[in-house]
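Q: Hi! Curious about what Histidyl-tRNA synthetase looks like structurally. Here's the sequence.
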Amino acid sequence: MKYARLTKEQFEELHKEFINFLATQTITAQEWDDIKKNKPEVAEQELDVFSDLVWEGVLNKVVYIEHISPQQIHLFHLNDEHMHLIAIKIKNPIDLTTTDGFNWLRENLMDDDVEFLQAKKDYSEDRNADKFKLIQQGGVITKGDLFKYFDKLIN
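A: Let's find out. The predicted structure is below.
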């Protein structure tokens, strides 16, 4: 398995797609029930293959990822050539994961306690694995509004 198995909730949400996936392998509902019952290791493999296909499709479309922690914000723009990072670091004990903390940041962007950093990094040989790693580390796929705002502000 290249990425991670989908959760039970994700499988339920993608029930129709999973049925279509099984159909492409000419596995009927009755055969699937038999596989689950008599060949659980094969069923596990099918779930893993489907999960990887779903992740691959999602990761191919990801352009922005955000990771917000109490003292830092990491905003990633994932373009074709490289990852562009805008990092915001707070030097005082304000929690950016709270509404009050985020509002403080909005009102104090030019404060000496706020530090902006930028970096660019080339992808490894597997761009989607790089994106997945950011998600595994707590990143969230977004539309990029925060990245665009700070990119315009500091560039």
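A: A fun detail: The chain has two domains: 8-61, 64-154.
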